[in-house]
Amino acid sequence: MVNVLTDIKIKCTRNRVAEYAANPDNAPEWYVNIDSAEWQTQKPLSIGSRIAFKAQFLGRQLAYMYEIVEFIPEQKLVMRTANGPFPMETTYTWETIDNNLTRMTLQNKGIPIGFSKLLTPLMSLLMKRANKKDLKKIKDILEKRSQSPRSIT
């Protein structure tokens, strides 16, 4: 089983971090490996929403569908692959540390199947590295935007 948990502190209010991170339209901007996100259901985000993602991982092009299975605005978002090469669950949580500081966690859990099983230890390491880059990127984007009056969405 793969279970990768990473977190970061972002100098921005929880509502702004959560609003940005929970919007699938923003995923290609802050996820290093995601090329596109396409809504398969009507907006806004809610339980049952489905989003098709195209990404690259380990040099391979991946296409998969996430379905939202839990959503508590500004607190928690849980999505699971509805199809794709690797059954995966991704969870975001947001926690206020103080007025303008938020801790965001990103957790990926899954059970590799087929050939992927052999690569589980390597996949965990590479996913943790990618998640750290993703969280660093969202931190940079949101902290930069919070210094300007421009909207974040």
Radius of gyration, in angstroms, nearest whole number: 15 Å
Low-confidence sequence ranges: none
Name the CATH architecture.
2-Layer Sandwich
CA-based shape: globular
Ends apart, CA distance between termini: 35 Å
Q: Structural class of the helix and strand makeup?
A: alpha+beta
Strand fraction band? 35-45%
- Strand arrangement within the widest β-sheet reads 1-7-6-5-4-3-2
Largest sheet: 7 strands, antiparallel
Name the CATH superfamily classification.
START domain
Brief account:
The protein has 153 residues and is of the alpha+beta class. The protein is 25% helix and 42% strand.
Describe this structure in words.
It is a single chain. A 7-stranded antiparallel sheet has the order 1-7-6-5-4-3-2. With about 150 residues, the protein is α+β, with helices and mostly antiparallel strands. The protein has a single domain (about 1-145), classed as START domain (Alpha-D-Glucose-1,6-Bisphosphate, Chain A, domain 4, 2-Layer Sandwich). The mean pLDDT is about 90. The longest helix has 27 residues, at about 120-145. It has 3 helices and 7 strands, in the order E-H-H-E-E-E-E-E-E-H. A hairpin with a 2-residue loop joins strand 3 and strand 4. The protein is globular, with a radius of gyration of 15 Å.
Write the layout of secondary structure elements.
Elements (H helix, E strand, L loop, with lengths): L1 E9 L3 H8 L5 H4 L3 E6 L10 E8 L2 E13 L3 E8 L4 E11 L2 E10 L9 H27 L7
Antiparallel strand pairs: 1-7, 2-3, 3-4, 4-5, 5-6, 6-7
What attributes does this structure have?
153 residues; alpha+beta; Alpha-D-Glucose-1,6-Bisphosphate, Chain A, domain 4; 7-stranded antiparallel beta sheet; 3 helices; 42% strand; globular
